[in-house]
Amino acid sequence: MGTKAAGGTIRTGIGGWTFEPWDESFYPPKLPKKRQLEHASRQLTAIEVNGTYYSSQKPETFAKWASEVPEDFVFSLKASRYCTNRKVLTEAGPSIEKFLGQGIAELGSHLGPILWQFMATKKFEPEDFEAFLQRLPKTLDGRPLRHVVEPRHESFCTPAFIDLLAKYEIAAVCADHHDYPMFADATADFVYARLQKGTDETPTCYPPAEIDRWAGRFKTYAAGGVPDDLPRIAPDRTVETKPREVFAFFITGGKVNAPEGAQVLQRAVAG
Predict the structure, then answer these.
(1) Distance in angstroms (rounded) separating the CA atoms of residues 140 and 161
(2) 20 to 30 A Cα–Cα from 127, which one of 9, 68, 200, 246?
(3) What is the pLDDT of residue 8?
(4) What is the pLDDT of residues 88-102, one digit of tens each?
(5) Which CATH number does the domain housing residue 96 bear?
(6) Is 147 exposed, middle or buried (0-12, 13-18, 19+ CB in 10 A)?
(7) What is the C-alpha separation between 271 and 219, in angstroms, rounded?
(8) Integer Cα distance of 68 and 88 in angstroms
(9) In sequence order, what are the beta bridge partners of 3?
């Protein structure tokens, strides 16, 4: 299960659970592919599902995933590209409803944050973006929903964007990426980090010293603070000190060793 820090729970994980190199580097020899989720969910505490970005799934699929993981395990789902890859976000309502209505409620308590990722060319247009945020429901079948957005254009690096997120209690991805902006400001009751600078040559995806640095930052977030060594878009904004859940995923860079990195990080935040 996730590590209960001084405050909220910290969960670490990877993107998906099917990746051929993991058959040798992560999974036991001769483990049937149909049991890979069962194994991965017992070594990690969360998984970000990328497949939902490209295509919809059946309710039975989500129910099956839920049945194969431990009680405290959480899936984050990347929302459909049809919701976010559009010129006018105000028109995304029907696509949002379709995505949320495909059966994700079958995950029950295993449903974590929903990630709304935008193209790197998408610029910040305050009124249109606020209209999009207004279309993200707070509940689904009686269960609270948590939303996190991932804009990747520099125009979002403005306090106006951070204020908008805080208004709707929505998080922005704290992206550790070579090209995309990082949003380290705390605007919701959870923090969502995507660590994307790993390398396949590093056995732990990120160097151990860097993992320790991130572990310290995540413990600060969980306790209700904001790390003082990460740049904030709105540094003068007052942030309420309250426990937060933290989700941290090793994504993209160093994917071969991402499972090892996630496990090392999980042990680090527990220390």
Answers:
(1) 25
(2) 246
(3) 87
(4) 999 999 999 999 999
(5) 3.20.20.410
(6) buried
(7) 10
(8) 39
(9) 10
- Candidates 56, 35, 58, 15; CA nearest to 173 is 15
What beta strand segments (E) does the chain contain?
Answer: 3-4, 9-15, 46-49, 74-78, 111-117, 139-140, 143-144, 147-150, 171-172, 174-176, 190-195, 245-250
Domain with 81 in it: 3-270
Count of beta carbons in the 10 Å neighbourhood of residue 225: 15
Contact assessment for residue 218 and residue 10, using Cβ atoms and an 8 Å cutoff: yes
For the stretch 60-69, pLDDT in tens is 999 999 999 9
% pLDDT > 90, the chain: 94
- The span from the CA of 163 to the CA of 236, in Å, is 12
| Cα(127)–Cα(136) distance, integer angstroms | 15
The CA-atom distances, in angstroms, between 219 and each of 102, 144, 184, 271 are: 35, 24, 14, 10
* pLDDT confidence tier of residue 240, bands split at 50, 70 and 90: confident
Q: Does the pTM of the predicted model rise above 0.90? A: yes
Domains of the chain: total: 1
Looking at residue 158, what is its pLDDT? Answer: 98
Average per-residue pLDDT for the chain = 95
Task: Tell me the two tokens of residue 141.
Answer: 């079948």
Copy the structure tokens of residue 176: 């550790």
Q: Is the pLDDT of residue 46 over 70?
A: yes
Q: How many CB atoms lie within 10 A of CB 104?
A: 24
Q: Distance of CA 250 to CAs 120, 176, 263, Å?
A: 20, 10, 10
How far is Cα 233 from Cα 224, in angstroms, rounded to an integer? Answer: 18
Write out pLDDT tens, residues 120-150.
Answer: 999 999 999 999 999 999 999 999 999 999 9
Band (pLDDT 50/70/90 cuts) for residue 56 is: very high
Asked if residue 148 lies in contact with residue 170, where contact means CB atoms within 8 angstroms, the answer is: yes
